[in-house]
Design brief:
Blueprint: H1 2-16, H2 19-38, H3 53-65, H4 70-83, H5 94-121, H6 131-154, H7 167-193, H8 206-227, H9 236-271, H10 275-355, H11 361-389, E1 397-400, H12 401-411, H13 413-418, E2 422-425, E3 433-436, H14 438-455, E4 460-467, E5 471-479, H15 492-503, E6 507-512, E7 516-524
Parallel strand pairs: 2-4
Antiparallel strand pairs: 1-3, 4-5, 5-7, 6-7
Helix pairs in contact: 2-3, 2-4, 3-5, 3-7, 4-5, 5-6, 6-7, 6-10, 7-10, 8-9, 9-10, 10-11, 12-14, 14-15
Protein name: HAMP domain-containing histidine kinase
GO molecular function, one term: kinase activity
Transmembrane segments: 21-39, 126-151, 171-193, 200-223, 229-247, 254-271, 283-305
Amino acid sequence: MQIWAIHQHLIERVSHVRAETWLLLLIYPLAFKAAHMAASPWGGAHFFSLWYPAAGVRFALLWRVGARFTPLIMIEECLVQVATGTVELHHPEFLNHLGGVARAPLAYGAMVALVRFIETKGRSELAIAPMPFGLATVLSPTLAAFVAGLWEWIWPGLSTDLSTQPFATMIAAFLIGDLLGVLLLAPALLWLFDPSNRWGLGILSGTRAIEAAIVFLAGWLLAAGLASVQPQIAVMPVLIAAIWAGIRCGRHGAWAAIILSAAIILPWSAAEQSVSTRLALHMTLAAMAIAAYLAGSFAEAQLTARQDIGRRDRMLFQAERLKTLRAMSVAIIHEISQPLSTLAIETRHLSKLADDGDWDRADMAQSIELIDRKTALIADMVRRLRSFGGRSVDEPSTISVAQLLRDCVTILEREALDKQCQIRLEPVDSQLVVMGHEIELMQILINLLRNAIAASPGTSISICVTCAKDAVAIAVENRLVQPGRDPGGMGIGLMVARAIANAHGGDLVREKDSDKVRHTVQLPFEMMSHG
């Protein structure tokens, strides 16, 4: 039975993988080999290449489909390298060389998994988008180079004659080549193959772009002057200019500066005969790519943090208004009771006058005037009460789906614990955003989760997010402790939730089986910024 359960679990996991993912995994060997061959102009006697675009293809795929596919990617790379003769099947060091091929995707997958974990569970500024992506682009090649160095130390595959195979040069070139391959290629591939995850504008503006362009041009003018004197340090002014572009214009400015610099440096280094000069140029380009991209990521993360603080301030402001509103409602009810009493008295008086054939016209006019005045007073009180705690307090804004769900889970953590219920939040892309009223969207999710907790004490509730062509789907699924009985039902709370979803251009769909119920909130998504 246990084997059958495992078999069923594997089938279920495979069936949930999107066709797009399988397509990317299918074409990956061809893309990897093509990128591997494209690196040859920057190779050398002691290393494979100082620019290794295949690393960028590998990283983009792992970041896109998830680290769980690392074993499959390892197998694909090994098969490609054996089939094309890069790793010779009958070579005495075949297993060592094959291990050298497999260690890189393994290191990349491990680092992507770690960064994704930090992004999901972390509370520090490193978990604020787009810092996780920036860190992963730098740390994945670094870990791969460290593993390569450790591997060569334990199972040497290089010649023992360091005059012909300098170990340090090989490891440094490995690190530089992978860093450049990832930082130059991965962002473009992720943008190209995932149209729904196109970068947002971030902090880029026309004025900042012009400022960064002027600084960048000045850096290259200085570099041109130094090139004839000392080519190994000629690119240093450009390094500073690229960092400035990242700080002022975010990842967009940083990546533009990196690409433009690479378009100049890579042809220059390919034609350069001096190995030391080539290595120095690529080291500077790698340092520029790391520093500029991390600077841009940090600048955007700071902007995100400021927006998050502002969002929380608005929520606290709204909570304080609602707290005051409760206190005001008691006083206003008391204030309304007096005009209502007056209205009741005057209405009875008018009724009596109407029954009396000999009524005083002036007396009736006075009563009507009094009724009109008291009615206006009550209407004004209600209008002020509604405007104080109304919808306009929470203005529509872009909302991070991941943060919204984390906030809801935190709010209901104690209630779930009391019911011995576990809320399991599946990993959510931190760049996924929707437009709407945050307090209202939170009300939907809290209603769904509270209903699930009431229906499933002692069990687990799962929250998962998927992205279709034009909508984000947030699904809350729970098992029913007593099959056939659903305390959540489709009562007033869910009717309100559905009305809110409809007001945001979405919908609330309910699916029920014999032992579980699933509520899916569908909302139109905004353009997402890939981390």
